Amino acid sequence: MSAGQVFIAAAFTVALGLFAAVEIIGRREGSRVPTLGDVCGVVMRYRVGPLPVGRIAMFGFWWWLGWHFLAR
Amino acid sequence: MDRPELVAEVDRAWARPVVLAPVFALISLVGGALPSFSLSANLLVLGAGGALFWLGMSAAVPKRPAPAKLTREAAWWLLPLLLFAVVEGVTFLIGSQAYPTLSRLADPVLEHYPARAAAYYGWLWAFWAMVRR
């Protein structure tokens, strides 16, 4: 791996570590920080009229992500 | 004295982790063995994802309650999200193997069967967690 690749891998690792850290903080007793599941739940409740836009967007994004990494 | 009746939604038998875990494991073990860009790999992801998408849009699975609105502290989630978006965005714009995007970094890892099958398993469970929301 080149120095650039190591730097980018480290940056992604820090980002993923921060995701984990915020989730751990959110799961602590009495925490005011919501968990990732709570944030997703609120986003997924977003509707435009009768259309559950938030749900469709989250499912569509996750479906695409699986296709991108696991089928391509 | 009358007591308020408590109503708890019970998972359907097929929606319990004890049933889903082996089903997801089987899909992952098969999916992990399928080569990239193959028709079978595409069909499996489209089929499994489509089924979960359909379940998530239907009322077949009881949903867990979400908070009415987010607290101000939810802004902490922007920290990892923005860092991730900036790194991914910059590496995408550079478009060089010297500064790879996440998918380019993941490609050599996901070429190995155990890693690909594990990623499949994680993807399915995360999808299921969203279906339950």
Give the assembly state of these chains.
heterodimer
Number of individual domains of chain A: 2
What structural class do you assign from the helix and strand content of chain B?
A: mainly alpha
Average of per-residue pLDDT values of chain B: 91
User: Would you tell me the structural class of the helices and strands of chain A?
Assistant: mainly alpha
C-alpha Rg of chain A, in Å? 17 Å
* Count of β-strands of chain B: 0
Distance between the termini of chain A: 23 Å
Beta strand count of chain A: 0
Beta-strand content estimate of chain B? under 5%
How much is the average pLDDT of chain A?
Answer: 95
Radius of gyration of chain B: 20 Å
Order of helices and strands of chain A: HHH
Instruction: State the share of residues found in helices of chain B, binned by percent.
Output: 55-70%
Query: Helix tally of chain A?
Result: 3
Provide structural commentary.
Chain A has 72 residues and is mostly helical. Chain A has two domains: 1-33; 34-72, no CATH class. Helix content of chain A is 72%, strand content 0%. Chain A is flat and about 50 Å long. The relative contact order of chain A is 0.07. Chain B has 133 residues and is mainly alpha-helical. Chain B has one domain (13-131). Chain B is built from five helices and no strands. Chain B has helices at 17-31, 39-57, 78-94, 102-110, 113-131. Chain B starts with 16 loop residues before the first helix and ends with a helix. The relative contact order of chain B is 0.14. The model of chain B has no long low-confidence stretch (mean pLDDT 91).
